Amino acid sequence: MEPPPPQSPRDEHPHTHSHSSTSIPTTGTCCKCGGATTHAPPSQSPTSWPDLSSPPAYRPIRAPALNLPPNNTQAIILTPVPQSQEVPTITPPFHFQIPSKKITSPDDIRKFHDSPTSKNFLGFIVALSESIRGRKISDPCHESATVSNIVFIIENLSLWVDQIPPVQQSSRYGNISYRTWHERLTENAESFMLQFLPKDLKSSTIEIVPYFTDSFGNSSRIDYGTGHETNFAAWLYCLARMGIIKEEDYQAVVARVFVKYLDLMRKLQLVYCLEPAGSHGVWGLDDYHFLPFIFGSSQLIDHKYMKPKSIHNEDILDNFSSEYMYLSCIGFIKKVKKGPFAEHSPLLDDISAVPNWKKVNSGMLKMYKAEVLEKVPIMQHFLFGWLIKWE
């Protein structure tokens, strides 16, 4: 005999039809059993749901599960595909400042997305995506001294992981050695920036260092998610705003810098068992990343042989993951998650039925805007200063 389902606080008392005004039915019926009630529906509006999608038309018996499938798919489909934009570079006088958090509510999100800053930042992501379209990771590209410097910095961070092994502990997730690694990152971040900043822009460290240190996870919670990944993109955007990264560097920024960053983050996830920050469970795209799916799908646009359904071919994953980020992501997920792919990654499984990579890429860009840049729990940690303005 199965045990009874766990009771919510509202189920602790005997069920009658003289419900108090804490029940919020919408049609004058009982929200628990569907029977008629002796009271008319209360006039107050339901409790606001700031961090979730719109509530259903009825009040559920139990609190809504965190892993509900996204119900705004149609809204995402109908939104226009974000377009690439040129990043405007700053000119003297410079007013670098310590960046701070500004987003605390859905109203703040709407204000941000109506701003030129938001549109330009997303346009920068699109431009990076277009720079790698139809290209393999190993394809030759222009590599500036700045790009080489950044790659060297990330390789150093990876070496530190080898020097700071995980400690033996009882908890499965969140190895505390990660805090030692992150502390060393924080201590050295400014000197890293000074390696490639020109003399007139060295004062920018006060603004760009916080984006950089927030790009590799949170040392208190020992977690990592799409918000941290977005901070890395914001750091790159700041470098583009200062003219340190130019448009001719974009392909190398993706194929050299971002690929190294992705490798480092996977290493951190495996070695220190970082918790996923704000995971949607099986209804999310991935526990940790989003941008490599955008860049990776762009790489595969118009590929002669590989289609979205090719992710189910193990030979293709084995032979081409080193060249295509999307395949690398799928291969990594299959490595760290057990069970049928359609069960642990139903969204990616559904996407594999899309007819071509161009549609996958445009859908990923729209989804990134809706599921990352428009979510308060993620964007409440985003920083604004002089380079990325709160307008």
UniProtKB/TrEMBL annotation:
InterPro entries: Phstyr_phstse_ac, PTPA_C_lid, PTPA_sf
Phylogenetic classification of the source organism: Eukaryota, Viridiplantae, Streptophyta, Embryophyta, Tracheophyta
Family recorded in the similarity comment: Belongs to the PTPA-type PPIase family.
Principal EC category: isomerase
Primary localization class, coarse: cytoplasm
TM regions (residue ranges): none
GO cellular component: cytoplasm; nucleus; protein phosphatase type 2A complex
Name of the protein: Serine/threonine-protein phosphatase 2A activator
Domain of life: Eukaryota
Region annotated Disordered, chain positions: 1-60
Biased composition (Low complexity): 19-38
Function (record text): PPIases accelerate the folding of proteins. It catalyzes the cis-trans isomerization of proline imidic peptide bonds in oligopeptides.
Residue ranges with Polar residues bias: 40-51
KW Isomerase (keyword) present: yes
PANTHER family hit by this protein: SERINE/THREONINE-PROTEIN PHOSPHATASE 2A REGULATORY SUBUNIT B, SERINE_THREONINE-PROTEIN PHOSPHATASE 2A ACTIVATOR
Pfam families assigned to the protein according to its UniProt record, in alphabetical order: PTPA
Compartments, record wording: Cytoplasm
Catalysed reactions listed for this entry: [protein]-peptidylproline (omega=180) = [protein]-peptidylproline (omega=0)
Keywords: Cytoplasm, Isomerase, Rotamase
